[in-house]
Amino acid sequence: MGWLKKLLGKDDDGLEAAQPLNHPSQLNVGDIIKMSFLDQSDLSNKRFEVKAVNSYDFGSDPEISFTLKGESGKVFFLTVCSDNGEEKLSFSKIMKRAQVTELFQEQAFGQLFNEGADTRLERQAIPTGFEEWTAASYVEEEDCLKGYYYKGDYRKQPFPRFEDESSGVEYYLLEDPEKAFAIEVEVYASGETEVSATLYLDLSAIEEMWPAT
Q1: What does the alpha-carbon distance between residue 46 and residue 170 come to, in Å, rounded to a whole number?
Q2: Where are the domains of the chain?
Q3: Which end of the chain is more exposed for a tag (fewer CB within 10 A), N or C?
Q4: Model pLDDT for residues 87-96, shown as the tens digit of each residue
């Protein structure tokens, strides 16, 4: 019923909900988005609820990550990024280690962590569940960018002063030549490494947005 109430635009008292959202960067926890028809079947024409809003600090404005969960339970991550002044949607989903080593030759992928390696990777197979999520080849675009990850939304407040309220992270980015797909790697101070398959979409890929009631 919660999904239905939001889609109808009414709260529990039957009052009209807030005005529709105007831009994906305005999303908050509880908001719902509906995707247009896409090549990616796990996104196409699906609805997702924003379950969390978290922040990265790489020395400039906060970079915001929206955690999305669909009715099927699948989780994706959304950020709004800019490519030469053009805004894009960046959708990501996490890859398991076995999926990474299926996608790339393991030794070649390990070269990414050699500073200044200018890594180039060729796809060797497509893991199940990542059809339409990967490209044939990638080139390293960001090498060990150091920053901090914060749980929570810091769009309207400064980052905490103390490092124990954050997690140190080293960020690596590889993109395909057409800049339609990417592989993102986050290495945390704890030693945990997170690899995500990412695709870039136009803002119009989000067909509708409903604010939480």
Answers
A1: 32
A2: 2-210
A3: N
A4: 999 999 999 9
